[in-house]
Structure formats: C-alpha cells, structure tokens
C-alpha cells in the first residue's frame, strides 16, 4: 500500500483508491498508472473483467481489467483487490475504472459468467453489452464430458448469420448429442444472447472473446504485486517494439494485386497487426461478386447507392450501401460495427467501383497507428509555458518518457549505440542543469504523509484458491 501511495505522490497520473473496514483495515483497493489510464481511454471500448485469481497473501479476489490495443495485444487497464465477490464490490471496481478514465465507459464487458459481476455491469453500465468468456464456456462444456459437443457449439457461436440459422444449428447440435433437457444445456441456451454472434451482431467486441488465454500471466506473478508490475512493463516493452515497427516497417504489397492501391492506403494508416486483418478481408473478397446496384430514385440523393452481393460458394446474399457524401459504407453483416474493420463485402464494392482508398467512415481510430496520439499530447501545446505546477511537470515527464522510450529500447540492442546514447544524455543533462542554474528540485509540492492502513483480513475460506474455478460458468437465467 505504501508502495502504491508513494508512486501516486511521485506521479499524479498514478491512480490509487481504497476503502477501509470498521477496524481501519484495507477493504478494497484499485490502482492503475498513467499509461494504463491512457490505454483505457484509447482502447477501453471492450473491457474484460477477470476475478479468477486468489493467490495473493490475503487470499482475496484479485481483479485484473484488460483490453486489446491497436497492435491487437492485451493491455492491462487496472488492478483491484476486493474483499469479496459481491455485486457492491464489483460496482466499486467498475466505478474506480471509470473515474480513472475520466468518465470513459466501455461499450462491452466480457466476464467469466459470475452473477454478481453481471448485476454490477447492469447497475454501472446499463447501456453496455455483456459477453461471456468463450474459454470459460468451453471449459464448462468439457466439464460435462462433452468434448465432441465443442465443435458444433463453435458453429453456433460464430458461424450463424441470423437468429433463425442459430436456432436450426442449436437444435441439430443437441439432437445429435442427445443432451436435450439437460440442465447445463438449458442454462447455456438461456445465456445465448451473451455468447452467440447471431444475437450480438453489431455490438463492438474488437475480436476479444476470451479473458484468461489472452492474459496468460503466470500464477506466481499474480501473487506478487512487484512481479506483476514487472510483467506489465515487459508487455509494454513488446508493445514499444510493435510501435517501432509500425513507424519504420512497411508491409509488402505485391505488384499486380487488384487491391494494391487500397492496401498501400491501408498500410499507411493501420498498425501492422490491424493491416493483416484488413488484408485478410480483402483476400476473402474473391468469394463474392457484386450482382447489381439500386440506382437512387428520382429526387433522392444520387450519392447513396445500394449494392447486392452474392457469395459464389454458398449463394448467400448481402447488401452494402455506399454513402459518397459522408464517405462511409454500411453492410448488413455488421462486421464493421462488431470488430471495427471493413468487411469483405465492402471490399467487393470498393473493387467494383475502382476505389483507391478506404472511405474514412469505415476506418475506426482505435486500430490506427495514431490511436494513442490524443493521449500523448505535448503539454506545451496548451500554452502552459509559465505553468510549473506539479500536474504540468507530471504531464511533461510523461510526454518526454513517451518520446524517449523507443530510442532507449533501440539503443540498448548494441554496446556502441548504448554508449553513444549514454554520452549524449550525459551532455544533455549538463546543458539542462546549466540552464536551470543548478536547480533541479522542480517538484515543489509537499509530500503527503502515508496514511496508516492496517493489513486486510486474511480470507480463510477455501473457495477459489487456485486459478481454476470449481464452477466456471454460472450463466444468468432466461430472458
Ligand atoms: Zn459485410
């Protein structure tokens, strides 16, 4: 606790909140640093909420809130230690995350199926869509000795375009496996709106379906906060490598490819990882053909045109609309709304029209190289030259760290570049000290004394001692 409060005193962007019980012992604790807060504001549209770890010294539920960044890698938004797994505890955690994110609220939340957490989401985020973690769902199925059920279940999860298709596939599945009427099957079906793509089409999930497999922190890391900080920092190091590649490496775009212009335009704006998703959609376009388009009726806007597209293998039909005035597109498959990338049907229209750029209305900011640009703004842009408050100093420190980290990461790869950078920094340090007249004591704010907080009560119950839950899925009842 002293470590976290110390970090907050040295850096105002570090967020810590806690509550105490009637004996002044630690009750609930939430923390995140400046980078996690910025990541949450840039990528917190989808929030995965995991409470499966209870391996710390106090055996309390340890909550890690995660999401996916523009490089399609897992990022930690915040961590919490709570006294129990009751709704009010999860309500408190969600409220702290929103407070740390200056009011930003997720569009969708992924959980392991805990009922108390589901109630908390309803209370704090009534507009958000709740999705159940696919990994937990599969474990629940395998727990009923139904390994063969899994592949058919995956068809119901993500291969059904409409609710009617889903109902047909579900009926076939339970008939084939002779599990009709079983309680766990009924519970699974009752929670279908929280896992079936056909029911969730159009709600943004950004491709995040699971919690644990994406987190993948070893148990010993989660039992020690310091190791957790190191593990998060290691992931950030990997992320800085991705950032470096986004700027300095351009993906190969083959000559003669019918999407060459669109691929070059996409590679200029999307991160490498996002570009690969877009490229895959372009490739899958080859299975689709534009059959015809509806010309606008007389007197109606001429730049909104509806296209009818057909899958040449399955004969399935799709409808895409191109709005040239607003430079946007819509497709009935709702893939753009669900994952944030233009779909193969849109690319069929772009090819048909000979477009050289993806319409800006189809490009989602959170997948771009500049996704975080708004959160790494230079503090001097806001005319704060004369402002030497603790907050402005912290903002300058964060901005300089953001600028310097990539060059440090590159320089340490060889002894020569390391020595060269060290010498340059040495000269710069002398120059800066001279300009300040030797006064480097810029942090003028008084240090607050650390509050006396008792250790939390140790939980004696055996529940949830390991990463694996006894009952991984407790789906909510029917609608
Ligand atoms: Zn589509």
From TrEMBL:
Renumbered to this chain, the Basic residues biased-composition regions fall at 465-479
Question: Could you tell me which residue ranges the SWIM-type domain spans?
Answer: 317-354
InterPro entries, alphabetized: MULE_transposase_dom, Znf_PMZ, Znf_SWIM
Which Pfam family, an example, fits this chain? MULE
Does the keyword Transcription regulation belong to this entry? Answer: no
Extract the signal peptide range.
Answer: none
Region feature (Disordered): 439-479
Q: Which UniProt keywords apply?
A: Metal-binding, Zinc, Zinc-finger
Please indicate which superkingdom the organism of origin belongs to: Eukaryota
What protein am I looking at?
Answer: Protein FAR1-RELATED SEQUENCE 5-like
Source organism of the structure: Spinacia oleracea
């Amino acid at each position: 606790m002293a470590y976290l409060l110390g970090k907050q005193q040295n850096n105002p962007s570090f967020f810590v909140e806690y509550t105490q019980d009637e004996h002044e012992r630690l009750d609930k604790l939430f923390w995140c640093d400046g980078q996690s807060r910025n990541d949450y504001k840039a990528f917190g549209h989808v929030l995965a909420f995991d409470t499966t770890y209870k391996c710390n010294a106090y055996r309390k539920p340890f909550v890690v809130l995660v999401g996916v960044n523009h490089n399609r890698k897992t990022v930690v938004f915040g961590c919490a230690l709570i006294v129990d797994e009751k709704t009010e505890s999860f309500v408190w955690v969600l409220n702290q995350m929103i407070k740390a994110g200056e009011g930003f609220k997720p569009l969708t939340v992924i959980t392991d199926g805990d009922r108390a957490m589901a109630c908390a989401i309803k209370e704090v985020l009534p507009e958000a869509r709740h999705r159940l973690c696919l990994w937990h769902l599969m474990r629940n199925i395998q727990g009923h000795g139904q390994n063969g059920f899994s592949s058919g279940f995956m068809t119901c999860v993500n291969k059904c375009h409409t609710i009617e298709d889903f109902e047909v596939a579900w009926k076939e599945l339970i008939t084939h496996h002779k599990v009709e009427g079983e309680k766990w099957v009924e519970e699974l079906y009752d929670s279908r709106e929280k896992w079936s793509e056909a029911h969730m089409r159009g709600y943004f999930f950004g491709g995040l379906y699971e919690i644990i497999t994406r987190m993948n922190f070893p148990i010993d890391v989660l039992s020690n906060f310091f190791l957790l900080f190191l593990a998060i920092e290691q992931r950030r190091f990997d992320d800085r490598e991705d950032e470096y590649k986004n700027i300095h490496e351009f993906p190969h775009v083959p000559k003669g490819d019918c999407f060459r212009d669109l691929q070059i335009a996409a590679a200029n704006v999307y991160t490498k990882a996002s570009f690969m998703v877009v490229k895959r959609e372009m490739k899958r376009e080859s299975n689709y053909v534009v059959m015809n388009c509806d010309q606008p009726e007389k007197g109606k806007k001429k730049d909104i045109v509806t296209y009818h597209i057909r899958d040449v293998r399955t004969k399935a039909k799709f409808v895409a609309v191109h709005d040239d005035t607003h430079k946007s597109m819509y497709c009935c498959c709702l893939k753009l709304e669900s994952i944030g990338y233009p779909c193969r049907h849109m690319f069929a229209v772009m090819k048909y029209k000979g477009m050289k750029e993806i319409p800006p209305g189809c490009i989602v900011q959170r997948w771009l190289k500049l996704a975080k640009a708004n959160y790494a703004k230079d503090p001097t842009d806001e005319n704060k030259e004369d402002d030497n408050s603790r907050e402005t100093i912290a903002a300058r420190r964060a901005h300089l760290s953001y600028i310097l980290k990539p060059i440090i990461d590159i320089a340490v790869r060889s002894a020569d570049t390391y020595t060269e950078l060290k010498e340059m920094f040495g000269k710069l340090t002398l120059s800066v000290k001279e300009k300040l007249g030797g006064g480097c004591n810029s942090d003028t704010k008084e240090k607050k004394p650390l509050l006396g907080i008792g250790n939390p009560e140790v939980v004696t119950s055996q529940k949830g001692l390991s990463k694996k839950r006894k009952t991984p899925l407790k789906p909510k009842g029917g609608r």
